[in-house]
Amino acid sequence: MNAYFFNDTVALTGRTLRHVTRSMDTIITTAITPVAMMLMFVYVFGGAIDTGSVSYVNYMLPGILLMTIASGISYTAYRLFTDVKSGIFERFQSMPIARSGVLWAHVVTSLVANLIALVLVVGVAVLMGFRSGAGVSAWLAVAGILFLFTLALTWLAVIPGLSASSVEGAGAFAYPLIFLPFVSSAFVPTKTMPGPVRWFAEHQPVTSIVNTIRNLFAQQPVGDDIWTALAWCVGILVVAYIFAMAAYRRKIA
Amino acid sequence: MTAQSIAGPAIRVQGLKKSYGKLEVLRGVDFDVAPGSIFALLGSNGAGKTTTVRILATLLKADAGTASVNGFDVATHPADVRESISLTGQFAAVDEILSGRENLALVARLRHLKDPGAIADDLLRRFSLSEAGARRVSTYSGGMRRRLDIAMSLIGNSPVIFLDEPTAGLDPEARIEVWHAVKELAGHGTTVLLTTQYLEEAEQLADRIAILHQGRIIVNGTLAELKQLFPPAKVEYVEKQPTLEEIFLAVIGGIDKSEVTGTTTGGRG
C-alpha cells in the first residue's frame, strides 16, 4: 500500500464529487425513475394490490430504494468510462500516485451520489404518506444494508466502466438491475405469483433485502431474511470486486 | 519528489517488441535519448509512436526488449519511472468539468507539493491562462486546452517529459505557442520525447530525429545527418511563393500590428 493512498484518494474523490455537484441533473435523473414508479404504483396500481394492514407506500418503499441505487450506479459506470475514454485515467496512472486511488475515488463518489438520491426519494415518500416508527438502531440497520448493497453494485459498475467499448454499453448493464425488483416481493406479495416465477422471486437477492428493510421500518422481527440479505450483498461485493480488479489489471497492464 | 537523475542516457530503448494479437506494432525498436535533449519520434499514423510512449510511461507492458527511463527499468521499477516522468497524451487529457486552475491544483496535490493553489496561479500566468483560470475547461479553445495540458505536465519538474503529438489538431498560431513552450522546457534541462507526424515540427524542435516506420526505427540522427542521406543539393532558381501558412500568419500578424500602429500595411517584420 502506497504511503500516499489516503491523500491521493481524497484529492481524486474531491474531483469526482465536483463532477456530481456540478451536474446535479444526474442525481435528479437517478431519483426520477423510482419516484415516477412510486407515484404510479401508489396512486394507480396500489389500490388493486392487497398488502394487508400495511399502507402501500410503506410496503413498496424498500423496493423503490433498491431501484434508486440500481439506477444511480449506472452513472458510476458512466463517469469511470468517461475518464478512461478521455485519457485522464491514463494521465493519473502515469503519475507517481497510489494508482488504485483512482478507482476508490469513483467508489466513494458513487456512495455519496447514491446517498443524496436516496434521501431525495425518501423525502418524496414522506410527502406521499410514508411513516415509520422505527428507532435509531433500526434506521441505522436500514442504512447499513443500503450502504452494503450500494457498495456491491458500485464494484459491479466498475467492471463495465473499465471495459465497455461505448457509453451505451457502460450504462446498459444497470437496466436488468433496475427491473429486478419487479420480480420480487417489492411491489406485490410473492404468493400471488405462478410457481416458477414465485420460486425465482423468492430466491433472488432483492426479496430478502426488501423484506428485511420492510420489517425494520415496520418494527417487526427480521428473522432469517437479514442473514440471507447480508449474504447476498457480501457475495455480490466479493465477486464483483474480484472481477473489477481483474478488469483494472488488464487496463493498467 | 523528483527522483535522482543518473549518468547515461535519459531514455534507453532496446529491442522493444509489442503485438496486439497478430498485429505486430513494434518489431524491435532501439534508440537512446541524451539528457536535456529534445528527441522526436516521427512517423505516420499507426507507426507505433503511441505504443512506444505508453510502454515508456508504464501504461503498457512490452512483449520483448527492455526500456529504461532516467536509469530505471520500466518493467522492474515502474514506480521510480513514474517519479521521473510526465505524460501529455495525444488527446489533451484535462478535466472538462473542473476549471483550469482546479486541474493544475489537482495535479500539484497528486504530486504531493506544498501550496497547490500558488503553483496553479503561477502556471496560469506563464501560459497566459490567468483570465480563463476560473472557467470550466469545457469552454476553452483547442489551443488553450493544449496549453493547460502541457502546463499540467510541468508540475513537479519531472526530468523526462513525453509529449505524444502535442500539436495534433491545433491551428498554426497555437502550434507555434506549443513549440515555444517545448523549447523553454528543454532550455531548463528537461529531456523531451516528442512524437509527431509533422515533419516541420521535428525540424523546428528536435535535436535528434528518429523515423519509426512499420514498427522499426529506420533512420536516427540529427537534422544535418538526415539531410546528408540525400544527394547534395543542386542550385536551381525558383520563384519563392509564400506558403498558405506564411500568408495566414502574415495576415493575422498584420491585423494585430495595424491595431497598434494605425497603419493598414500588413506583413511580418
UniProtKB/TrEMBL annotation, chain A:
| Keywords for the protein's UniProt record, in alphabetical order | Antibiotic resistance, Cell membrane, Membrane, Transmembrane, Transmembrane helix, Transport
Instruction: Identify a single GO molecular function assigned to this protein.
Output: ABC-type transporter activity
Gene Ontology biological process? response to antibiotic
Write out the annotated subcellular location.
Answer: Cell membrane; Membrane
Q: Does the keyword Iron apply?
A: no
Q: Which spans are transmembrane here?
A: 27-49, 61-81, 102-130, 136-158, 170-188, 226-248
Q: Which cellular components does GO assign to this protein?
A: ATP-binding cassette (ABC) transporter complex
Q: Name one Pfam family in it.
A: ABC2_membrane
| Topology of this chain in the membrane | Multi-pass membrane protein
* Residue ranges occupied by any ABC transmembrane type-2 domain in the UniProt entry: 25-251
UniProt record similarity statement: Belongs to the ABC-2 integral membrane protein family.
Tell me what this protein is called: Transport permease protein
- Give the organism the record lists: Streptomyces himastatinicus ATCC 53653
From TrEMBL, chain B:
| Sequence ranges assigned to domain ABC transporter in this UniProt record | 11-239
Q: Which InterPro entries match?
A: AAA+_ATPase, ABC_transporter-like_ATP-bd, ABC_transporter-like_CS, ABC_transporter_ATP-binding, P-loop_NTPase
Give any GO molecular function from the UniProt entry.
ATP hydrolysis activity
* PROSITE patterns according to UniProt: ABC_TRANSPORTER_1, ABC_TRANSPORTER_2
Which locations, inside or outside the cell, does it occupy?
Answer: Cell membrane
Give the domain of life. Bacteria
Q: Which UniProt keywords apply?
A: Antibiotic resistance, ATP-binding, Nucleotide-binding, Transport
Family designation: Belongs to the ABC transporter superfamily.
This one is known as ABC transporter, ATP-binding protein
Q: Where does this protein come from, organism-wise?
A: Streptomyces himastatinicus ATCC 53653
